[in-house]
Amino acid sequence: xxxxxxxxxxxxxxxxxxxxxADSLRCLTVVDCIDLALQNNITLKNxxxxxxxxxxxxxxxxxxxxxxxxxxxxxxDAMNPMLSFGIEDIDNALVRQTLYNLYAQYGTVLxxxxxxxxxxxxxxxxxxxxxxxxxxxxxxxxxxxxKLGIKAAEYQAKIKEDEVCLQTESLYWQIVxxxxxxxxxxxxxxxxxxxxxxxxxxxxxxxxxxxxQYKITIKxxxxxxxxxxxxxxxxxxxxxxxxxxxVDWRTMVLTDTLALQAMPTEYYHEASAAVAxxxxxxxxxxxxxxxKLKKKMTLGEALPSLLVGGSVNYHTVLENAKPNAMVFAVxxxxxxxxxKTVFKLKKNDLEAEMAENNRQxxxxxxxxxxxxxxxxxxxxxxxxxxxxxxxNDAEANLKITQDYYxxxxxxxxxxxxxxxxxxxxxxxxxxxxxxxxxxxxxxKQLTDF
Length: 449
Prior knowledge:
It is built from 10 helices and 8 strands. By secondary structure, the protein is an alpha+beta fold. The radius of gyration is 44 Å and the shape is elongated. A 4-stranded antiparallel sheet has the order 2-5-7-8, with no helix packed on it. Strands 1-6 form a two-stranded parallel ribbon. 69% of the residues lie in helices and 13% in strands. The chain starts with a helix and ends with a helix. The protein has a domain at 283-302 and 337-449.
């Protein structure tokens, strides 16, 4: 009875552990991985912050449209009055003597002093508002330039998203390819095990040489080494994929398998039309527009500017001080800056010309890139066709060789070689399908619009 209870408890414990392990695993499709990458990738998060920075720059530039209001307060207490004046300060001796006589006669009665001082201590308050009416177009063009910065940040973020998606899909399908190769190794190992058992009986019956068993052992060792390499490759690729999508690589289970893709002609686009709709092309256009706006801002530095404003002030420096207010207008006309501005405008023209040259150069390079991606896609499709033909031939050859081997017409080495050919043909077909899948992903990314 105790033995039965122990067995039941062990089964329940094992079932619970398996259930926990299954719950900890995370089954992921390629779409799941792309979604996770878009959510968790650090590079994409930083790109979103770049957009927010560009938006803050735009709001900063927009603030130039509004009045600038400043308030100042000053309090002081000097050792000596900053302004003093008395009878002794009069240079004319006759006037000075006359005032002395008058002061001696009436000063004491009237409460007058021989010397008066001002501004030894006091407080000053001032509030001023300034509104730019015209600044040579610099405020307007500065705001347009800030808007271009937002668009540029958005296009750059989209480009990074495409790069992350391409990297994620590439890693995913490379892992799937290695997993398929392990499946091929499983089939080969089963054949080797079956052949080894049959060979043991034949050796015991004296029909085969023991050295044939050694040949099978060599093949099994090769298979074990290949399996180790494949598992290590899968681990490294999973670690790279996990770093991209932000999950634990130990819990990842990839569920998608390679499906038969359509022919390349189903996805063809004219290279020039595809390039015109790429985010990189939009960025090049923005760069040219930005250089033209910079030229307008440079020209605005040499144009007159008009400011209007008003201020309110109050001080206790003088006796009987009263609040005061005023409005004012300031017209600034740069006169000597024209010589400097001419060369700055020339520099802007050169930078705009460089931007135009870069746009043309990169457009041609992107068209070449698109055509190269198309050629790669066509070549990988041809490789699939050739690999499939080779696999069919290898499987047919294996069947014939196996029949001949059972009939004693060929050696074990011939059979093992035929099995190796099938294994290599499976690997070649898997590699060609993965290559086509990766080339298709890249081509669609370059041409989808």
